[in-house]
Amino acid sequence: MRMAQTPAAADGSSGDGALGRVPPQSIEAEACVLGSMILDAMAIDQVVQILHDDYFYRPAHQIIFRCLVQMRHESKAIDLVTIKEDLVRRDLLEKIGGQDYLVALAEGVPTSANAEYYAQIVRDKALLRQLISVGTQIVRDAYETQDEAPIVVDHAEQSIFEIAEQHIGDSVITLQDLLRHTFEMLEQHEGQLITGLASGYTQLDELTSGFQKGEMIVLAARPSMGKTSLLLNIAENMAVIDQAPVAIFSLEMSRNQLAERFLASHARFNLRQMRRGVITPETWTALQTAAGTLETAPIFIDDSASLTVIQLMARARRLKSLHDIQCVLVDYMQLMLYSGRATSRQEQITEISRGIKALAHDLEIPVIVAAQLNRGPADRPTHTPRMSDLRESGSIEQDADVVMLLHNEDYYHLGEEGYQPRGVTDLIVAKQRNGPTGSVPLVFLKDYTKFESATFGVEQPLGEPMADAPF
Questions:
Q1: At 168, is the pLDDT very low, low, confident or very high (cuts 50, 70, 90)?
Q2: Domains observed in the chain
């Protein structure tokens, strides 16, 4: 490639990078990008979707790129003469190496048809330089920070994650392509009406259309209502039926307890008998069969009892990167530790809730988190829970896209003479940011710690969102 020399003062490539080495760059690709833009104004429209001026390693190339983009924006004719005049007017011609350098750029490019390919090379080199810069900053922060170590680690991981997940040059898509994609989804889910991740409970999935990407779903209940069981049942349905990789963060139960519950639920075997070792040859075979199915289910379990939201986000990012998890389930929110500076528990839960919401958004997957309700349901005559019963912080209901409240009226009438048990646990969808609210009847099989859809009754729609739903 024939190219005029750039003055040293304008050429940032001559200096040493980190550790005395020249940072990653491709001067040839940069020159080809600019040459393509000079020869074909249409190439500018392609390149600007991929590159910014600071992606160029040479300062002179940054100047020329900004000049070409501005001229295109102003609908000016672009050729060697007009570019030279524009640079002269801005007193920048000598800084980029003079007219000879512009001529060399135009004559040195093989073809402007490859402008997008050249731009991708420039972008990739820029990403590598960003990674070096972030790595240097991580080292500096580790030496000089006044923050606690977990916060520094999270900032470091987030910085690298942002580089890895950069979607540079998001392109505009036509309505035709969108409609084609929509019909492909409709065909894929024909008869199911599920556009998100199915829970395995038909009426719930019909109400929500599945748990959607980026959603924070709260499953709240009073103690002994079965929220942990339902959380695990949902995870089991996702991983076994749909083979969707899921991650469970259990702050309340150990990994062994979770394994026993999964096995009892899937084999429909009495959990108490399993723990006591009361197993016949026939039931042993059933347990082995269930275990074989569960072994192939992509379920990842973290039973750290002392888990902060920063640690949750870091571990979930790794699992997403390594195993492409499609859902995160947390049991339960109020047990999470806090590592920041907020003093009141309400402020701490607010920060934890916001972190969980950010996790769902960043990983673009649903995050289902169990939460404890206060004594409000026990103190009112109907015992029906409300979102305002969410314990310690109103920010949970504000951050959540979906709030589900688990309610078993029979629990409040145990041993009460004359009371006729309903045998039904109501899963109340009290808030759904992008859909209707309603109630789904479930039956809890206590021996198996398993919820199943009720075979009787119908979903009772609540109509308009509840009065205390914060939209």
A1: very low
A2: 8-164 (1.10.860.10), 192-461 (3.40.50.300)
